[in-house]
Design goal:
The structure is a single chain. This protein is α+β, with helices and mostly antiparallel strands. It has a five-stranded mixed β-sheet with strand order 1-3-4-2-5, sandwiched between helices. It has two domains: about 180 residues; about 140 residues, 2-Layer Sandwich (Alpha-Beta Plaits). Helices cover about 70% and strands about 10% of the residues. It is rod-shaped. The relative contact order is 0.07.
Length: about 350
């Protein structure tokens, strides 16, 4: 039945409604058998009418008309219980016990406006049964002989079983809805985290990108983390690697460079790829002497890496500068200039 629905929520609702219809048929069967046993044809007629009427919402379910199907089920069950209690032989008490199940039915399957309508109709039915008999509007006849204990036992047990099924369906539906909500929240959080990461990180090296680096540069400009040092690094011979060995090897060289730099600097330092072959590092609370030590550590790490990967050596031109107060933009320019001076010196040594 639920397979005809494309939406998961509609499939769940259709499954619940189908189970409630079958549960209602089970209770109706007991009432019909009881009517036959006690020779109460009024109860049998009303119950048979209710049984046949429940075919209508079943057909509507197959036609994907969930709202109409849900409303008709609620009205049929409510009407059947009320009429049986009115014309039947002394089963008003059982009917009143069964009426709250109608509200559970409605709560499981109806939208808010129709649910309120069903609650109002159920309360009206209870008032009719209680005050109607008390004021002589109708008179229920006792069974031939006293009402037997087994009738009450089986009837009450069936009502409780249907109520338990309804509550279990409601609880299952709520758990499923909560599970779906948690899954959607987790998925949304994951996607938002990915978007934030992509917005602040370089896709190739997974370190920070230029936009984030510049934001941090502006933020630290007004912080109390001075002295702040800036280190600039440029990958030598990247174009030659791209031209001769291919861009895949060039990308690998950039990833190796990022890994080397990441292994040297602290978590609080801001390491970023700010250009095709350029990297930059912001080092809060770092004076000039410590910055120079960091440059030495970078060179040592490069030497170790190249000894292990002679087929794709990393060569970096480096420059550093330190700001004692709020002049980070100027320090960034100075570090960049020193980095290019280092590159020029390295090239001159190679020519000689």
């Amino acid at each position: 039945m639920s397979s005809v629905y494309e939406n998961e929520e509609d499939r769940q609702l259709a499954r619940i409604l189908s189970m409630l219809i079958w549960a209602s048929w089970g209770v109706y069967l007991f009432v019909i058998l009881s009517g036959l046993y006690f020779n109460d044809w009024a109860v049998i007629s009303v119950t048979l009418t209710g049984c046949v009427s429940l075919v209508i919402p079943l057909i509507l379910l197959r036609q994907r008309n969930l709202r109409a199907s849900s409303l008709i089920v609620t009205l049929i069950v409510l009407a059947t219980i009320t009429i049986i209690a009115t014309v039947g032989q002394g089963i008003r008490d059982l009917a009143i016990v069964a009426l709250p199940i109608v509200i559970i039915f409605a709560g499981l399957t109806l939208p808010q406006s129709l649910f309120r309508l069903s609650v109002g109709l159920t309360l009206a039915a209870v008032c009719w049964l209680v005050f109607g008999e008390a004021n002589g509007w109708f008179t229920t006849k006792p069974f031939a002989g006293e009402m037997t204990n087994w009738f009450y036992l089986i009837g009450t047990s069936l009502i409780l079983l249907v109520a338990a099924l309804s509550v279990e369906l409601l609880a299952t539906n709520m758990r499923r809805s909560l599970g779906q909500a948690r899954s959607e929240i987790a998925q949304r959080t994951h996607i938002e985290g990915q978007l934030r990461f992509q917005g602040t990180h370089d896709a190739l090296t997974n370190i920070y990108n230029r936009a984030f680096f510049m934001d941090e540069l502006n933020r630290l400009e007004h912080s109390r983390d001075f002295p702040i040092s800036v280190i600039m690094a440029d990958v030598d011979k990247l174009k030659a690697v791209n031209d001769i060995q291919g861009h895949a090897r060039g990308d690998e060289l950039l990833r190796h460079t990022a890994k080397i730099l990441h292994s040297v600097f602290r978590e609080r330092d801001v390491l970023a790829r700010i250009g095709g072959d350029e990297f930059a590092v912001l080092l809060p609370t770092t004076n000039e002497a410590i910055a120079e030590q960091m440059l030495v550590r970078v060179k040592d790490q490069i030497a170790r890496h190249n000894a292990e990967h002679p087929d794709l050596p990393v060569e970096l031109s480096l420059g550093a500068s330190t700001a004692e107060n709020n002049n980070l933009a100027e320090v960034f320019t100075v570090a960049d200039r020193r980095m290019y001076a280092d590159k020029a010196e390295r090239r001159s040594r190679q020519i000689i």
